[in-house]
Amino acid sequence: MSAGPQVGDPAPDAILLAGGGGRVQLSSFWKERPAVLVFLRYFGCPFCQMHVVKLREDQQLFRDAGAAVVLVGQGSPEEGAGFCQRKHLPFPCLLDGDKSAYRAYGLRRRNLAVVVSPRIAVPFVRANLNPETRQRGLEGGDFFQMPGTFIVDAAGIVRLAHRNRTIADSPPNHALLDVLAGLKVDNTSDRSAEPIDRR
Question: Model confidence over 135-158: pLDDT tens digits?
Fold first, then answer.
């Protein structure tokens, strides 16, 4: 199985299903600005829900950073729409029914020992104390699928590639925002290096 793109590699493109049932090209989200791609295990996963809720809470910071946040799940359009509605999400959730995009990004299925590692016990309890992020049924996904988060710049280059080592170690928002801030600095530097026509 492919290891998937590393930082500095071109981001794989894919045609995915939008919440309304139409098809959309993944690269359309990074065509004009950076995109934060968040691949979910399944919609009832407590850790995926925690990650998504934190992204929602900081949505203005991501807007200020000039980035699009895009979720990628695996369920039906109805399941995806229901998830977005329940979580009051301001960003889209695309659907990858055959998991071809997951494979392209190097996100693998793992065995039971990894998925139920003792390292997730405390985060699992913490997630289930919050009614919004507690464990729900195995809706729209795969219990053994590992999640991941990627940042792709407007040139289509991967700037962050985080493949979860456990199902609970999604990157914190400040780490994502730091990468996005670096992209803004790079863009400013590029513009300042351009010759100025004073005619």
Answer: 776 677 788 999 999 999 999 999
Domain harbouring 35, CATH code: 3.40.30.10
Q: Is residue 171 part of a domain?
A: no
93 domain residue, yes or no: yes
Structural domain including 86 reads: 15-166
Residue 168 to residue 36: CA distance in whole angstroms? 18
Q: Is 6 inside any structural domain?
A: no
Question: Could you tell me the pTM of the whole model?
Answer: 0.86
| Paired strand residues for 150 | 37, 161
Place of tokens 């979580």: 87
Q: What is the pLDDT of residues 109-129, one digit of tens each?
A: 988 877 777 777 767 777 766
Backbone φ and ψ of 16, nearest 5°: -120, 165
Place of tokens 């400040």: 174
**How far, in Å, CA of 28 to CA of 3, rounded?**
24
